[in-house]
Amino acid sequence: MTRMAGVQHAHRAFASDRSPRRELAGAAPAAVQVLDVLRFLAGQRGPVAAAVIARDLQLPRSSVYQHLRALQHLGYVVHLREERRYALGIAAFELSSGYLRQEPLARIGAHLLASLVDRLGENAHLAVLHGRDVLYLVEERAPHRPALVTDVGVRLPSHLTASGRAMLAMLPEAQLRALFPDDASLAERGERGPHTVSELRSVLDEVRRLGYGFEDGEVTEGIASVAVAVAERSGWPEAAVTVSFPSDAIPPARRPALATRIREFSDELARRLGAGPQSAPD
Fold first, then answer.
1. pTM for this structure?
2. In the predicted model, is pLDDT for residue 234 greater than 80?
């Protein structure tokens, strides 16, 4: 199974992801279960029933209801009585806002990108998906390399960029349909890039086959890019690490090897953000 194909099993991966926390679960089982419930709710597209939580997390229903009542009392969960479902509450939003304020993705990513640029001698950047666009959070420029349009804060259509394609290829089919329901949803940028949903699907199929995103001259003429997504444990694309270079500097035959080197950094970023395998703290 390829790295990209593993996303199709994200739902089952969530349950299997509990194994690295066995030691912690033995010391504080209730705390681990509560966090599992919050993570599960955060990964859903909408409110879910308590029975679904209990089933997918393999927890007793009595424990799930107990955790949900406590979370509801503290504002982390809202009970939608008419629907008999549960959703994240305002306290969970405040928690996520605090995470964003501390900017760990950009802070950690900046250090890793600097190291990547030192090793490769090419420009690199870190981007996240934002709707149909990619939003650039960090850029590290190599000496004597041309400036790029991918400056911090810039947004570009995701289907045209290597970083966007690396992340789009990891999305579930339903999410892709929601983002690109028809050909009109693909922003035009001259004659470059896929112009139809069918063409985009072909591009993403190739990205999944290779295990990395790529583009050559579709954002800036004469500049090519190779990108590897940073995946959460559930398989959801959290960001992408991209290296950009003059098209003639690294020929197509050498780009798979470049992707392998980029993946080392994307895996390290995932590990530092808590998405990779971790041992229990001392």
1. 0.63
2. no
Do 115 and 139 form a contact (C-beta atoms < 8 A)? no
Q: Quote the tokens at residue 195.
A: 């112009």
* Chain segment 64-102, per-residue pLDDT in tens: 999 999 999 988 899 998 889 999 887 886 676 555 554
Which is it for strands 85-88 and 123-130: parallel, antiparallel or unpaired?
Answer: unpaired
Structural tokens at position 65: 């209801």
Tokens of 14: 């969530």
Distance of CA 219 to the CA centre of its chain: 21
Tokens of 103: 């900017």
- CA 202, chain centre distance (Å): 21
- The pLDDT-based confidence of 193 (bands split at 50, 70, 90) is confident
Residues ≥6 apart with Cβ < 8 Å to 174: none
Q: Quote the CA–CA distance of 227 and 198 in Å, as a whole number.
A: 22
Copy the structure tokens of residue 281. Answer: 């703290």
Instruction: Tell me whether strands 77-80 and 85-88 are parallel, antiparallel or unpaired.
Output: antiparallel
CB atoms within 10 A of CB 80: 12
